[in-house]
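re: the backbone from monday

yeah here it is again, tokenized this time
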């Protein structure tokens, strides 16, 4: 009886040891170990033409308009972080946002960084953008990162990413080429609105990006989502039309741009640098159906792994029991022979 108790104690001890060895796998599968974690969304919205971000819902600017479109397609208010106005748009503040993304973002999360600012007056002269931003952008751990810039000379701030467009995955779009100027409307323009599109405030391209993102007519492949490529392609004719009207109604501005770029026909010329699937969309349902399904174990798979782990513990226990029983039987047989 004492020997049996020793056997059972040893068996129990071995099962406990086996359970400890297998439990990390079981716990990781239950928690997801990154595999059951849903896609998280992060939006960094930078707009120079709003006073501050204390109450972003109280202002109307390009960044808020873009945010509102993202909210319509499944994003949450908690997904957004803001830098509004000249006091907030500084290198330390933007660096802090980028550090936050580098720390928090998982490989299957989605990041959108949106700028509506002056080009040389802000991105170049205040932020020293091309000196550091792109490396920080590329260090964000997800492939699903998007950079949108509507500013004068916006292409100048996207061009450095061309070098990385083969080996790195991202989508980056500038509203105008490096030599071009972006145009926007303010309250003064609203007093004598004469354009073919409904009155709006803000920079032209960003406004129509936001509208197109929630316009089902832009869903050219009928997959129920507006991809970034569809957003760009569908909005561009309207953007060019409004620019043409500006050149018609604002001769001084037309002459300024003509003298500095050498052309005003077929204006503007956005720059897109991308290495993401053609159908990639910012719709939350797209994430669920096309990103999460590639990274999340199904319920059945999780159960199978858990049961397999438990089964491994049981098998070890049974094996130990058989060995001990055989040894006991052998000793008993030897004692009878003697």
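seq for it, each position gets an aa:
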């Amino acid at each position: 009886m004492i020997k049996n108790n020793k056997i059972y104690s040893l068996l129990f001890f071995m099962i406990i040891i086996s359970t400890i060895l297998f439990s990390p796998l079981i716990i990781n599968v239950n928690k997801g170990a990154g595999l059951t974690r849903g896609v998280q969304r992060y939006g960094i919205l930078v707009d120079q033409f709003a006073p501050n971000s204390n109450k972003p819902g109280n202002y109307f600017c390009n960044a808020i308009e873009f945010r509102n479109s993202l909210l319509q397609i499944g994003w949450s208010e908690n997904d957004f972080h803001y830098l509004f106005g000249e006091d907030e748009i500084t290198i330390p503040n933007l660096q802090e946002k980028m550090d936050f993304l580098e720390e928090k973002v998982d490989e299957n999360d989605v990041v959108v960084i949106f700028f509506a600012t002056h080009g040389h007056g802000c991105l170049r002269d205040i932020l020293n953008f091309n000196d550091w931003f792109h490396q920080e952008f590329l260090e964000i751990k997800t492939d699903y990162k998007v950079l949108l810039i509507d500013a004068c000379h916006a292409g100048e701030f996207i061009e450095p990413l061309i070098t990385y467009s083969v080996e790195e995955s991202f989508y980056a779009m500038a509203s105008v080429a490096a030599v071009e100027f972006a145009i926007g409307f303010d309250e003064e323009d609203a007093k004598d609105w004469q354009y073919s599109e409904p009155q709006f405030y803000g920079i032209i391209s960003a406004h129509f990006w936001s509208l197109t993102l929630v316009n089902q007519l832009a869903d050219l492949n009928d997959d129920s989502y507006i991809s970034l490529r569809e957003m760009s392609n569908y909005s561009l004719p309207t953007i060019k039309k409004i620019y043409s009207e500006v050149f018609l109604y604002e001769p001084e501005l037309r002459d300024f741009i003509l003298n500095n770029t050498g052309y005003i026909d077929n204006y503007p010329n956005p720059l897109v640098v991308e290495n993401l699937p053609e159908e990639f969309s910012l719709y939350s349902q797209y994430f669920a159906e096309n990103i999460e399904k590639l990274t999340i174990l199904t319920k059945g798979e999780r159960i199978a792994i858990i049961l397999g782990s438990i089964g491994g513990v049981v098998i070890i226990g049974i094996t130990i029991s058989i060995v001990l029983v055989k040894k006991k039987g052998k000793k008993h047989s030897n004692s009878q022979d003697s």
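Residues 21-35 have pLDDT under 50 and may be disordered. The two ends are 22 Å apart (CA to CA).
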